[in-house]
Write a structure and sequence with these properties.
Helix content: 25-40%
Number of helices: 2
CATH class: Mainly Beta
Number of strands: 5
Mean pLDDT: 85
Strand content: 25-35%
Keywords: Signal
CATH topology: OB fold (Dihydrolipoamide Acetyltransferase, E2P)
Largest sheet: 5 strands, antiparallel
Strand order of the largest sheet: 3-2-1-4-5
Low-confidence stretches: 6-23
Length: 120
């Protein structure tokens, strides 16, 4: 019984730690309909969002190399596909960032290396 209790406590502690880690990630979510979307010849993917939580155009990842971005090349390819589908269907989409503090603080053509989610 003591072993079972210890395992339960360890499981609860682990689950609590995972929950805290997962919830401490989101600082700001920006989104709306996709305004501008494109890829530079360097592979940098840029996007802007229109709406209440819109942004200036900014770079979120690179299709050829991870470089200083948080997103891997495969993640970047998935994000670009997702953003293109959202643009073509005029659907709202969101990006989550750990920095900046607000959507309006995203400077035009800046590199947002802390983008960690693109979602609907």
């Amino acid at each position: 019984m003591a072993t079972l209790t210890a395992r339960f406590k360890n499981t609860v502690a682990l689950a609590t730690g995972m929950l805290i880690a997962a919830t401490s990630h989101a600082n700001v979510a920006c989104g709306g309909t996709v305004g501008m979307l494109g890829v530079y010849d360097s592979g940098n993917v840029f996007v802007s969002y229109q709406g209440s939580y819109g942004t200036s155009p900014h770079v979120i990842c690179n299709l050829y190399t991870q470089g200083g971005f948080g997103a891997t090349v495969n993640t970047c390819k998935a994000w670009y596909s997702y953003l293109l589908a959202a643009k073509l269907s005029n659907q709202n989409v969101w990006s989550d960032y750990t920095i900046p503090a607000s959507c309006s603080a995203i400077a035009a053509w800046s590199y947002q290396t802390t983008t960690y989610t693109v979602r609907q």
